[in-house]
Design goal:
This protein is mainly alpha-helical. It has a single domain, classed as HPT domain (Four Helix Bundle (Hemerythrin (Met), subunit A)), CATH 1.20.120. It contains 6 helices and no strands. Helix 3 packs antiparallel against helix 6 and helix 5 runs antiparallel to helix 6. The two termini are 20 Å apart.
C-alpha cells in the first residue's frame, strides 16, 4: 500500500479529494492520468502563451484546475484558476507575469505524485 502521508504531509487535501473520487484506487488512477496528460499539456500551454493563443491556453489551464480540485491540490487549483480567468480576459501580461509560478506548482505536484506512486525518475 502506498504511503498517503507523502500526500497529506505536503498539503494535499486527500479527505476532500476522496469526497469527489470515492476511494484511493480511483484516486491513484486519476493521479496517473494527471501525470500522463500533463506531459502534453505543459508544452502546449507554453506554446499557446508564446503564440498568445489565450483561447486554447484557457482550455488547458481549466483542465489542470479541474484535475487539481479533484486531486486535492489546493494551491495548484488557485493558481490555475487565476490563469484561467486572466487568459479568458485576454490578459496576456498577467499570464506571462505569473506563468513561472504555475509551472513551478505543476512541477511540485508532479514530483509529489511520482514520489507517492513510486514512479520517480
Amino acid at each position: 500500500m502506498k504511503d498517503v502521508s507523502i500526500l497529506t504531509n505536503n498539503g494535499v487535501d486527500l479527505n476532500k479529494s476522496l469526497e469527489y473520487l470515492g476511494d484511493l484506487s480511483f484516486y491513484d488512477e486519476t493521479l496517473e492520468t494527471f501525470l500522463e496528460e500533463n506531459k502534453e499539456r505543459v508544452p502546449k500551454i507554453e506554446k499557446y502563451l508564446k503564440d498568445q493563443n489565450m483561447e486554447d491556453y484557457a482550455i488547458l489551464v481549466h483542465a489542470i484546475k479541474s484535475d487539481a480540485r479533484y486531486l486535492g491540490f489546493s494551491s495548484l487549483f488557485d493558481i490555475a484558476y487565476a490563469h484561467e480567468m486572466a487568459s479568458k480576459a485576454n490578459n496576456i501580461d498577467e499570464v506571462k507575469k505569473e506563468f513561472e509560478k504555475l509551472i513551478k506548482e505543476i512541477d511540485k505536484y508532479t514530483d509529489l505524485a511520482n514520489k507517492y506512486l513510486g514512479t520517480e525518475e
